[in-house]
Amino acid sequence: MTVDPISPLPGAATVQLAPPISWAAIWAGAAVAVATSVVLTLAAAGLGYTLAFPGLASRGSLQAFTPELGAGAIAIQVLAGALGGYLAGRLRTIWIGVHGDESHFRDTAHGLITWAVATLGVALLSALVLGPYTEQLTALTTALTTAAAGAPPTPAELARAANISAQSSLFIAIGMLLSAFVSAVAARVGGLRHEDMHAKAHF
């Protein structure tokens, strides 16, 4: 008689394995990351700093861009990614009988997926909701400034604008890479803390 190796033995207890991906934790972490990014960006705007949301650089933010503002935008992305990744790690399910290396990979994957979902969410929010409003204000300001100056931009001004645009894109890319890494690490930290609390509750 041939025995199916994956069939449970008669009378053996059936163990319900947890799924490798906890989508509820990922969505929760991504939502918190998006909210954190929006709140910090609006707080910076309230203090007089013109920062672009990750994935969207408006004309106004490019005109006011400086390396200091770029560093501030990177800090906002990193803080939002860290908080979202940590929550995704803390809120995911407990994996029973999973090797430590596999648990490490799954936690970091949770953080990376949380970062990806949050980044797409911020980009959509910026483009669909905040983008048109920002562009209208910027267009009005630009029109008033051009009318006051009474002259089209010079080649030197156009070259400077292109340089500022390139620097802004570079800072945004660096911020996205750093926030992705921090989110993955924070998810692992949250997962380890979650496992530790679970172990203490059962002993």
How are the secondary structure elements laid out?
Layout lengths: L22 H24 L12 H5 L3 H25 L8 H50 L5 H47 L2
Helix pairs in contact: 1-3, 1-4, 3-4, 3-5, 4-5
Descriptive notes:
The structure is a single chain. The chain is mainly α and 203 residues long. It has a domain at 23-92 and 113-140 and 161-197. It has helices at residues 23-46, 59-63, 67-91, 100-149, 155-201. The longest helix has 50 residues, at 100-149. The two termini are 43 Å apart. Residues 1-9 and 11-15 have low confidence and may be disordered.
Spans of at least 5 consecutive residues with low confidence = 1-9, 11-15
What Rg is obtained from the alpha carbons, in whole angstroms?
Answer: 23 Å
Mean pLDDT: 77
Oligomeric nature of the chains: single chain
**Could you describe the largest sheet, including whether it forms a barrel?**
none
**Helical content, roughly?**
over 70%
Shape: elongated
Q: How many helical elements?
A: 5
Quote the beta fraction. under 5%
Q: What letter string, H or E per element, gives the SSE order?
A: HHHHH
What structural class do you assign from the helix and strand content?
A: mainly alpha
Q: What's the end-to-end separation, in Å?
A: 43 Å
Total strand count, please? Answer: 0
